[in-house]
Known about the structure:
Layout: E1 2-6, H1 23-40, E2 45-48, H2 61-70, E3 75-77, H3 96-103, E4 107-109, E5 114-116, E6 119-124, E7 143-147, E8 151-152, E9 161-162, H4 163-166, E10 174-177, E11 184-189, E12 192-196, E13 213-219, E14 223-229, H5 239-246, H6 256-268, H7 272-282, H8 287-297
Parallel strand pairs: 1-2, 2-3, 3-4, 6-7, 7-10, 8-9, 10-12
Antiparallel strand pairs: 1-13, 5-6, 11-12, 13-14
Helix pairs in contact: 1-2, 7-8
Amino acid sequence: xxxxxxxxxxxxxxxxxxxxxxxxxxxxxxxxxxxxxxxxxxxxxxxxxxxxxxxxxxxxxxxxxxxxxxxxxxxxxxxxxxxxxxxxxxxxxxxxxxxxxxxxxxxxxxxxxxxxxxxxxxxxxxxxxxxxxxxxxxxxxxxxxxxxxxxxxxxxxxxxxxxxxxxxxxxxxxxxxxxxxxxxxxxxxxxxxxxxxxxxxxxxxxxxxxxxxxxxxxxxxxxxxxxxxxxxxxxxxxxxxxxxxxxxxxxxxxxxxxxxxxxxxxxxxxxxxxxxxxxxxxxxxxxxxxxxxxxxxxxxxxx
Length: 303
């Protein structure tokens, strides 16, 4: 059984203010690379870790059609916060991704345990409790948890889950995670492999120096994980953003441990909007308010 895993494409018809290239074209090109690799490696399927679109509704039909033509390998996915409105799973039915799944025979959302080539893939969507997944009964076949949640190698704050703690008693053979844009190196904790190659999209200052990648995974007598970098343009950010990423100033005080912790969390938390949507969704804030902030945030410059 061979499959490819990628996550957080965040397809959009708008170019972030920090980028100087044609962002929609770049994303479609990356998507094309993903499926060329899947075909060249003769993968049985592709797994997607959530946030296919940057908003639960986009109306750039030429962009949707370009992406539709590319996905021609069986693809199983979970849903991220950008794929629905206000963390409401019922909104998926009328979302762009819901429409996308309806008309593309290769694309299927994982709503329940699904046997693909003798491996059971279990979904953990953005609204699901990932901590509770450890106590669920699992099948006797090899099992993979596909989660759109902030799993990280070393951080364990707020909604971030440290794989080193989570994996000690994890019943799955592998956990594939999205949402954390910077990703982490594949790591085996106990008997469980944890894999997140990072977001296909690069939008903010945290993405400078990071190369988008996918994970090629094979289940045979043993499990093997290979991270494959995509071919990407390097000079995609404005000079102002690049210079800012190289400049670190702490004028008033120098508590080194505190600064180090803040910097680490800054890398984990993709951007303020993602954190706001996550907290707001869990705390029951009116979806209309979250949608309003979401729309206003897109018009602001984020560095």
